[in-house]
What we know:
The protein is of the alpha+beta class.
Amino acid sequence: MKKMITALCAVFMAVPVWAAELGDDGLHKTEWFRDTFKDLQEDYEEAKSEGKRLLIIVEQRGCIYCKDMHERAFMDPRVQKHLTETYYPVQLDLHGANEMVDTDGETLEEREAARKWGVMFTPTMIFMPPEIDFEKPATRQAVAVMPGAFMSGTTYDMMTWVSEERYLDQSEEDFQRYHGRMIRERNDGKTD
């Protein structure tokens, strides 16, 4: 009996209690995702009123990389802080049929927006500028697009690079050089 209780405790402890739950749509749900009508013009205005930047995160049902991103990178306290204090994260479904409004005002389904934007991988994070042009679609004005799940250090560095507007002058330090410098400064050789 003691062995069975020990085994059950080990299994329970191995399952992360902070893991994002799956919604009815098969996408990971968190408390920091903004539950909006997916009108990116309105979402931008709300983000701006809160002093935050709009961040669009495209995911899909059954995406093992999305799961990894939620269970690893998004659990890093540094990344969590950005997700709650710096950014206004809105989740879109790569194959979703829900109606949404792009930053240029076009009304279309989520999956149509993903095709319009050329999003082919999940997860994809689309970082919007502090000021949005309502004449351009989201990806034509994004300051950075991060396709794929990366370790927490890379994710944190991208979020910091964008929030500090380092993309405005890449003459000496583009993101890769910045990220390399951050790894050296952390002096651990790791990207997480």
